[in-house]
Amino acid sequence: MNYLRDRVYMGFKAKARKHRSDNGEDEKNTKTSSKTEGELPCGIRDCEKFADKSMGGRSLSIENAIDGWGSSGYEARKGRVRVCKSCYRKWKKENKTEDMY
Length: 101
Ligand SMILES: [Zn+2]
Description:
Layout: H1 2-18, E1 58-61, H2 62-69, E2 80-83, H3 85-99
Antiparallel strand pairs: 1-2
Helix pairs in contact: 2-3
Zinc ion (ZN) is lined by residues 42, 44, 47, 49, 83-84, 86-87.
């Protein structure tokens, strides 16, 4: 049952990201505002930000994503993991020491 539950959870989260109108963060109905909105959700599961290039998002390899968030902390697309600006910075920071070897 765990497998099924996880699938349902993932689907729920994907929807929740797009329709976040419950808590006043309505993303679709605020077209009059100048707030920049992304289209690519960040691939990190705990993150609700956007990974659009125009918003500073980056694309990491699977290996890099595992280094930063573990083997289940991200969602990959076509072999890459899209991350938002802040996730990328977090990853970069955490992996800095490894680059210095
Ligand atoms: Zn993120």
